[in-house]
Design brief:
Blueprint: E1 2-8, E2 62-70, E3 73-81, E4 91-97, H1 107-117, E5 121-125, H2 143-157, E6 163-173, H3 175-186, E7 190-196, H4 201-207, H5 217-232, E8 239-240, H6 247-251, H7 256-268, E9 278-279, H8 283-286, E10 302-307, H9 313-319, E11 328-334, H10 341-344, H11 346-363
Parallel strand pairs: 1-11, 4-5, 4-6, 6-7, 7-10, 10-11
Antiparallel strand pairs: 2-3, 3-5, 8-9
Helix pairs in contact: 2-3
């Protein structure tokens, strides 16, 4: 089994932070501000990342907004085609799953565009019940739905002109990384799987971040059960994870993950489809689930990437050794990077891509 653990030595960023929910922070160094976020209102595709496509041009990466049905729900997606795309030829293709609370116009859009620049067809879609996709109650966040979203993207993109279904890969970021591990356990159409800043939503919702809420598990399950009972009776839908915080309150949060997350999602890379909130009743499903359950079923090449300074690193380091079913796996740490920084800081994005491209080139090569 080839297992390689690598730290890429890169210059640290002052004021860096990490996370799963929101973006750049106050007090960020001048170096990191070189990647200015785009205003979704100024982009015809409502993309919010730096360097986002504003129009389709011959010979360049093009974006194709798409709609399709998944289990009766309307799903919105963006497909990116590489320079020189020829629908009559077969191209390697990558499915991208977005973070918890995120939408396709944020970090998965950035990576989808960058991977398309490197020769891949890519697709990223808003999760069912979230963003621009259909489903009620809004912001339902259940693992079985997020995993089905990935299968659904694979279904749809397999019919897109020029896609080589024998060369289909999967890349998940944050919560999408945990759900990608789950999808890859059984979906053997996916020939290689990679994660970035993987977030095990089940473990964190159950145990609290960094296992800090173990003593309140039963209490929180009671709250989730009561919320479901209220929904079933036709009452108000209750939500968790949402708050209207001031900058001072954000900076006072105890974890880098949430401090940088709030700035990313609510300030610098905000998008109207993106929100941290989820139905409280979803916790009934989240808290009994774990991304690492039956992870040995993954028998395809696996690449897991995380920042060496991310306070979510423990989730990747817990999952990696449990993936015993694959003979080709690698854990790659981006030296100095924290969780949210891997979403957008140019140096860290390039570090991730420096491993993603050769990984997918190798394992999605034509036979």
């Amino acid at each position: 089994m080839a297992i390689e653990i690598i730290d890429t030595r890169r210059r640290d960023f002052l004021g860096a932070g990490a996370l799963v929910i929101s973006g750049a922070m106050l007090g960020v160094s001048a170096m990191t501000t070189t990647a200015a976020a785009a205003d979704y209102k100024q982009n015809p595709f409502t993309l919010v990342y730096d360097g986002a496509i504003t129009r389709n041009e011959t010979g360049k990466v093009n974006i194709h907004p798409m709609n399709y049905k998944l289990n009766g729900l309307d799903i919105v997606a963006n497909v990116y085609t590489p320079p020189g795309y020829d629908p009559a030829k077969k191209h390697p293709t990558i499915v991208l799953a977005h973070p918890n609370g995120g939408v396709k116009e944020q970090t998965t859009g950035l990576y989808a565009q960058r991977l398309a620049e490197r020769g891949f067809i890519t697709i990223t879609a808003d999760a069912a019940y979230q963003g621009g996709s259909g489903g009620e109650p809004r912001n339902t966040d259940k693992p079985q739905f997020r995993i089905e979203d990935i299968h659904g993207m694979a279904d749809f993109i397999s019919r897109f002109p020029g896609v080589d279904t024998a060369r289909l890969g999967l890349f998940g970021i944050c919560g999408g990384g945990g759900y990608s591990l789950a999808a890859a356990k059984t979906d053997k159409r996916l020939k290689a799987v990679a994660t970035l800043s993987m977030f095990n939503s089940g473990r964190v919702r159950r145990n609290g971040f960094q296992d800090s809420q173990m003593e309140t598990i039963q209490q929180r399950l009671q709250q989730a059960s009561a919320a479901r009972a209220q929904e079933a009776a036709g009452g108000e839908i209750l939500y968790s994870g949402d708050a209207n915080l001031t900058d001072a309150q954000i900076d006072a949060l105890p974890f880098d993950l949430y401090r940088q997350g709030y700035h990313y999602y609510w300030r610098t890379h905000a998008h109207p489809g993106s929100t941290f909130r989820y139905t409280t009743s979803s916790l009934m499903d989240l808290m009994r689930w774990d991304a690492t359950g039956e992870i040995a079923l993954i028998d395809v090449p696996l690449l897991m990437i995380a920042g060496s300074e991310a306070d979510t690193l423990y989730l990747t380091e817990d999952a990696f050794p449990k993936a015993t079913g694959t003979r080709d796996k690698e854990l790659f740490k981006i030296e100095g990077a924290k969780h949210i920084e891997t979403y957008w800081v140019p140096e860290y994005v390039e570090a991730a891509l420096s491993r993603l491209k050769p990984f997918f080139d190798r394992h999605l090569a034509s036979t």
